[in-house]
Amino acid sequence: MRTDLTMFCLRLLLIGVLLELAVAEGLNPTVRVHHGIIQGKWKLSTKGREYASFEGIPYARPPIGKYRFREPQQMKPWSGTWDATRVLPDCLQYEPFAQKIVGDEDCLYLNVHSPRVQIGANLPVLVFIHGGAFMYGAGSLYKADHFMDRDMVVVTLNYRLGPLGFLSTEDEASPGNYGLKDQSFALQWVKQNIKMFGGDPDSVTLTGCSAGGASVHYHYLSPMSKDKFNRGIAFSGAAFASWTYSVKAAQKAKALAAIVGCPTTDSREMDWKVHMFTLFTPTAEPRATKNAFLTQYPWDLATSGAMHDVPLITTVTSEEGLYPASVYQQDTNMLDELESRWDHFASNIFEYNDTLPISLRTSVATKIKQQYLGGKPALGDRLFSTHVGKLAQIHAAKAKQPTYMYRYAYRSQWSLSHLMSGKEDNFVPNTKWLQVKPDSPDLDYLEIDGPNKIEMRSSDDFGYKRFWDSLGFIENENYHANVKDEL
């Protein structure tokens, strides 16, 4: 018995030595997934821990040719070893900061980072969906160095953007939501393969920021994503926000088609062989759509209780709306133009062109200016805070699993020195984070205003929602089937 135990320990020691030698000699980590073998590379975390990084893993067939404007398709198995040591192209997009077109249509790739690449490690998994108004961004922009100091697996991903990801003719020709379907397809890939990277497929936390946060909310509402994740965190995004849902999807598709010279009398006749760049977002697909992601208005789904009943954290920051506000601030000519033509531009800035009749837009623009004159965070309230607050309260009322919310207001001045001095334990003992109470007019949330200032707060008018609700936008609780005929 003792001899057997000794031999077992020696074998474990030998395995450990071989692993150390493999790392020391630069042998790259290799994993077999459902479609073949992939090889990544070793990296170092913030604190110097070695972890395996696999970048540019294909999770679906390239959405080109006959697969353009279609749901993602299964990959074919590959022979040999897939090189997962390089970042592959972002999805085709107009990059607003560089003001140029970047990326490629062949872009459905994801990245996996793990400190323990071994079956049975059962590490919790975090899947992050990037933001960018459903128009720009990429999974490769977000690194895992800090996370890899902990025992967890991190996944980031690309999904189709702009018209290639969200153009909808509101019929079977192009029902839309391809970007969200890509995300759901990637979640299925994670479910099937993540154990090969040391991850636990039954402990997946879905997270995302801005458009990624709204995407998290959409996955709570879609039957396509049921049972593909176990909890979620929606950073600064909700499917209730006007900028995350397209009311006039077919009208926008035809307008764009006319601009680029496509016929618009029959959506089946439109020539899709062009590159198109404009704002397109999720929308409800026709009920007869095969494998639809969403067939109902998000507010109706949420208030009916048709969401996945798993825990949820929602968040906002104190500086929501800095983009696009910062763009206006940097251009004095634009500021002058906004001031002189406020009534005209307000409906675009505050996203109510599609949800308010033309006859009411001037009066609403005046009310917004009067309410927020003096530098109050108008864009943040309209585009983020009010909707995230409503998401928290509705989810708390309809789900059995807990809902939490926090507002992040701390802006570190010496974050690098804090890191170097080891002061990364920024928490306040004995601060209890309370759940959002169901069926309560008050929204309870955690206010994070500094490393030593974290406290529970409560508001019955988070994001000045009463003001925004009073303006009569035909959205969320005021939305109805005939809205398009009124606008």
From TrEMBL:
Q: Name one Pfam family in it.
A: COesterase
Reported EC number(s) for this entry are 3.1.1.-
List the keywords (alphabetical).
Disulfide bond, Glycoprotein, Hydrolase, Serine esterase, Signal
The domain of life is Eukaryota
Q: Which enzyme type, at the first EC level?
A: hydrolase
GO MF annotation terms: carboxylic ester hydrolase activity
The leader peptide range reads 1-24
Stretches assigned to the Carboxylesterase type B domain: 29-417
Give the record's family classification: Belongs to the type-B carboxylesterase/lipase family.
Q: Which PANTHER family match?
A: CARBOXYLESTERASE
Question: Protein name, please?
Answer: Carboxylic ester hydrolase
- Species: Leptidea sinapis
